[in-house]
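[job 4417] fold queue: 2 targets
>>> target A
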Amino acid sequence: MFLALKELRHEKLRYLMLMIITGLIAWMVFLLAGLANGLNTGMRQVVDQWQLSNIVLNASANKNLNASSLSLSDLKQVKQTSNKTAVVQYAGAIKLKQQKVDVSFFWNSPKSIYFATAN
């Protein structure tokens, strides 16, 4: 113990740099966790604004809207059992005035398309 304290007193700069690097790594992890939580909340908010009572997803989609795709027979079965409509969702990126823009399309019939962008 005495040798460790003597080492700390003798090599102050080395241990100060070690503490600064550890603090910066902890701050970066905290920042990335907050960013991930914010992005998750933003995507969740879109689905919550629909005020839906039920959402039908593919069984292999792992509760992920982007990974879910229903076949035509599945859609017919859902429509027969209840008063539901299909919503098609597509996410991608387009180039607009030399800038890439993330876009999402939501539609349930050829006459109604909801278009959302995120920069």
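>>> target B
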Amino acid sequence: MKNLLNQLLELYLILMDIQMPIMNGLEASKLIRAMERPDAKDILIVGVSANAFSEDVQKAKQNGMNEYISKPIDMSKLFEAIKKYL
């Protein structure tokens, strides 16, 4: 079932919260990038967090995120981040 879901599910964008319970967004992004799906290396991952320090942005990008925006989400900043990859 998991393989079938992977084959049917086509993703274009992931909004990844950095501070999730069981697995944080940095770990999750790293795992996504390591997946054997053909889109795993190219899917746009935008990290979302209340932390907006430059070291947080750097950590996010080192762990496979393309962009990083702070909460509360400013929709114009989100759209600008997405537009870079269209």
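[job 4417] complete. Note on B: The longest strand covers residues 44-49.
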